[in-house]
């Protein structure tokens, strides 16, 4: 882990900077639409195990998967981030309130079935209960280690990673190494979903500046080809970063790909 990240990162500053709005911002809406479109090809409860790698202090991106995954695992390098997740999973009063974001996620999923405010509230309540029941373990990880989890030897049907490896180093060499380690956690025939900063060299959290390795879709194609993924299954979506231009973010991307069986 870049020591600069470790020393200056503040989970609550990050949550306040990017998740203090009363609704999902534009880019997050597009990410959740992408995820739901990806999941529509599968039946409910199609997968046993999902790993969210580099979760940061967030939980909301797991919500779309609650109908499709039996067991969820959350991993991050920083104990401070894991503590934020534990607070929410334990329903503590001092946990970050994700209700507004979850409401918007539910609206995306049930956009043709939204009958009333009570319907919305019940779905939000149910999603929170299900997510809390399906998270089976919270794991400290190190993406730059060949074995990212100490004492855990497991591969997953789906691995997700949202703004992780692109947000902790300025080195493209380190990014490639970390992404390769991440992709090794996917089962043969399994899937990966990644969102990342695109063509970006840095980003801001409050007044602190953090590095990014200035990657784009060409870099992902190279790393997938080296790690036994079916290049025909790669699906990219480029997303405008207009709300975050002042934070140094040039554009965003989300992608999915299947590992060869």
UniProtKB/TrEMBL annotation:
GO CC annotations, alphabetized: cytosol
Annotated organism of origin: Candidatus Staskawiczbacteria bacterium RIFCSPHIGHO2_02_FULL_34_10
Short name of one Pfam family: NNMT_PNMT_TEMT
GO biological process: methylation
InterPro entries per the UniProt record, alphabetical: NNMT_TEMT_trans, SAM-dep_methyltransferase, SAM-dependent_MTases_sf
GO MF entries: N-methyltransferase activity
Domain of life: Bacteria
Protein name: Methyltransferase type 11 domain-containing protein
Keyword field: Methyltransferase, S-adenosyl-L-methionine, Transferase
């Amino acid at each position: 882990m870049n020591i600069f990240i470790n020393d200056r990162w503040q989970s609550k500053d990050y949550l306040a900077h990017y998740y203090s709005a009363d609704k999902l911002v534009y880019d997050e809406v597009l990410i959740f639409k992408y995820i739901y479109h990806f999941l529509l090809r599968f039946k409910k409860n199609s997968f046993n195990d999902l790993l969210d790698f580099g979760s940061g202090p967030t939980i909301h991106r797991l919500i779309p998967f609650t109908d499709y995954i039996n067991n969820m695992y959350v991993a991050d390098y920083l104990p401070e981030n894991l503590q934020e997740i534990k607070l929410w999973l334990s329903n503590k009063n001092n946990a970050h309130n994700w209700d507004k974001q979850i409401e918007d996620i539910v609206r995306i999923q049930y956009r043709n079935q939204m009958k009333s405010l009570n319907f919305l509230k019940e779905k939000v309540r149910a999603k929170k209960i299900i997510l809390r029941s399906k998270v089976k373990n919270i794991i400290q990880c190190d993406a730059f280690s060949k074995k990212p989890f100490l004492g855990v030897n497991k591969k997953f049907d789906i691995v997700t990673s949202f703004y992780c490896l692109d947000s902790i180093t300025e080195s493209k060499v380190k990014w490639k190494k970390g992404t390769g380690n991440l992709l090794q956690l996917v089962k043969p025939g399994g899937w990966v979903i990644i969102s990342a900063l695109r063509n970006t060299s840095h980003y801001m959290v409050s007044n602190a500046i953090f590095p990014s390795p200035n990657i784009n879709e060409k870099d992902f194609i190279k790393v997938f080809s080296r790690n036994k993924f079916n290049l025909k299954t790669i699906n990219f979506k480029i997303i405008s970063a207009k709300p975050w231009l002042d934070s140094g973010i040039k554009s965003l991307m989300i992608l999915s790909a299947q590992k060869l069986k």
